[in-house]
Amino acid sequence: MTQSGSSLSAHGGRTGCGSPANVTVKLNKDISAWPDSTLAEQTVSGTEVSLHSQGVCEERSQYYTYTVSNTGNTLEGRHAYFC
Known about the structure:
Blueprint: E1 2-4, E2 7-14, E3 21-29, E4 37-46, E5 49-56, E6 61-69, E7 74-76, E8 80-82
Antiparallel strand pairs: 1-2, 2-5, 3-4, 3-6, 6-7, 6-8
């Protein structure tokens, strides 16, 4: 996750895989005691995938990257404060 001005960018993907899969990278905002909000997401199919989902920072809060593929693999990035 990176920030440039008020823009946030979530980075994710998959490497070292022989068969293609649909991979989605989400930019999420952590909302305490509520379901988290997805600010941006991007999906691509392939064996080697690198994605950057971009969104606008709403306020100083915790944001994180969430990567999921249709193979069932998921990865939730570190929650960090931005803006």
